[in-house]
Amino acid sequence: MRDDEFKPRLGKIGSRGSKAGKRYAGQLRAAINRAGGKATRGGGFTGSRMGRGGAAAAVLRSRDRHAAFRSRRVVVKARVVKLAGKGVDGARAHLRYLQRDGVTRQGESGELYGADSDRVDGKAFIDRADGDRHQFRFIVAAEDGIEYEDLKPLTRRLMVQMQEDLGTKLDWVAVDHFNTGHPHTHIIIRGKDDRGENLVIARDYISSGLRERAAALVSLDLGPRTDREIEQRLRQEMEQERFTSIDRQLLRMRDSDGLVAPDGRDAFRQTLHQGRLRKLERTGLAEEVVPGRWRLDNELEATLRRVAERGDIIKTMHRELTSKGIARSAADYIVYDAGQDAEPVVGRVVARGLADEIQDRHYLIVDGVDGKSHYIDIGKGEATEPTPEGCIVRVTPRSTEPRQVDRTVADIAAANDGRYNVDIHLRQDPSATERFAEMHVRRLEAIRRATGSVEREPDGTWIIAPDHLERVAHYERQRARAEPVVLDKLSSMPLEKQVGFDGATWVDRELVSNGPVALRDSGFGREVREAQTRRQQWLIAQGLAHEEQGRVVYRADMISILRQRELNRIAGQLSSELGLSYFEAKPGDRLEGKMLRSVELASGKFAIIEKSREFTLVPWRPVLDRHIGKEISGIMSGEGISWTIGRQRSGPGVS
Hints:
- The protein is α+β, with helices and mostly antiparallel strands.
- The chain has 19 helices and 24 strands.
- Strands 8-11-10-9-12-16 form a six-stranded mixed β-sheet. A six-stranded mixed β-sheet has the order 19-22-21-20-23-24, with helices on one face.
- The relative contact order is 0.05.
- Mean pLDDT is 86; it is low at 18-22, 34-47 and 647-655.
């Protein structure tokens, strides 16, 4: 069409258009409402129905309440996981963990499956997700899941229904777990639709739609719940120490005075309410103010959820300890509270597992030297290094207070118009070294990457806000939510092996320490005492200690002798393996070469540095994990090594 063929039809100013236009607008609003949105002016649109599946969720939520009451119950937990940065590594780790040993009915490792195959390559699935913005993780657990011999057909039917609801084909994998009292399925879905666009699922569908679909399928398989089944479940709820559907009813029944009376219109329901209120009264969560009228505790729901969580934790501890042949009384079970006043825990790792499989929060069970067994929430799985069973660790609560380096930065910036860099630091404090100042820069960079609350100019100068310490405290509180504790691996070697080991062990360091950990004469504390006594006899036989007036005296250089023995032995083994000569790095030496990998010794972790036809072993730093296979250089000193990535002298330090 040419421009001169276009003839606009002008209307009056303020005209709202033709009747046809009005009809179209009405049709558009109706379509939006059918899709789960709200097109009315001033409506309370929250965005919960944006994305695919909003219309299906709205239809499912409006279904017959009687049918919903009788349908089989299914729990669905969901999480949307960002894959940017380290997210892909976390996705790989999550997939490996889902396939761990002991999750099938036969106690074998989990097997990934998909829409058309009972065995799917997890690596290929993650590779396909390379570049995806996010992925969806679901846990689907039918209350009557134990009735299914195989959960795969149910999962596949659910995913077919989900694809219909969302209007797109889905790329997914799943694995079934039978290692708890409730069989359940983990489903991971790529964050892309069948056109390669980002897959956005309506929040209503994630929170309720998928659960309703799963419940309908289970009800179709097993039939709706009968009156007898419903009554039996409700009777069981009366005495349970968790937040139940009866509690939810009681909270809804409160009158304007905050009191509740059992429903007298139905004899069975009145009995349920009365029995539950008496149970709550015994636990201090309800009080009969006048005969037949009760006041519920304001923290009823939160308290019952905490009680249920603790009960689940105690069961987990008992199962793990019993499976390892460790006998501990329930009184010695401790759920570690990582508050700022919490005492450190030193002990042996009994087990590591997922406390929350959706949020990827892990726990440790540590058999402590205090004779207690501790359940410790260690936060995100990728936040802590591997901790194999039997290794000895120290766990301390993460501080949320600003560090001294933060206070130093704030003080120097306050005296320099809110600016900080290495040169300013050295001018302000002539006694400081460049390496010391660079430590402050690395701290600022970590905060910038995590929060963006500090700004770096192109010349490397940092703009420090007057409330810098408050921002740092906020950053530390965020870290503490993801990583509530600091986990130090004291020894990767089990206690029993340390007794006769020809190298410097944790037991040796405790024997010569000026402040050894306190040992209780029970549990793991007693085992450590016995190991120390046997180790003393070994050291005496080796000429590294002797008895004098009823006590054992150790050679001043005992630890260094033992450390050198192990280092020489491992260096010899590596020399044969690598076909390279070993040279020992000494303070003052400049090291250059390729970092091959790390090696674990009883005295700690070391990095293998290759140069030409030689190699050396130097103390490991966690930050080196990202630089395996790269050229690095550094200078040995009594304080450690300041590394530079690449052969150039100027580059990012990683010490």
